[in-house]
Amino acid sequence: METEGMKMLAMALAIGLGAFGPGIWVGLIGKWALEALGRNPEAAGKVQGLAILTIAFAEAIAIYALVIALIIGFAI
Fold it and tell me: Which of 8, 47, 57, 65 falls 20 to 30 Å from 2 in CA-CA distance?
């Protein structure tokens, strides 16, 4: 039973720590995009496109953490 508890702890740490950084970065990207739009509203299309692309890359890191957590849970 001890190994099952350690596996659950490892899964929780993998997804928890793996989603912490991207969560912060998504918030910062949104903040910076809104600041850029406040300074230059004419660039809304370019800023929006770049912000969405950057958020997608940040979220991909969280998805990798989820995959690692699932591998720990099912394969180990």
Answer: 65
pTM score of the predicted model: 0.78
Residues 57-76: b if buried by 16+ CB within 10 A, e if exposed: ebeeebeebeeebeebeeee
Q: Is pLDDT above 70 for 1? A: no
CB atoms within 10 A of CB 19: 17
The domain spans of the chain are 2-75
CATH class belonging to 2-75: mainly alpha
Query: Are 18 and 33 a contacting pair, CB within 8 Å?
Result: no
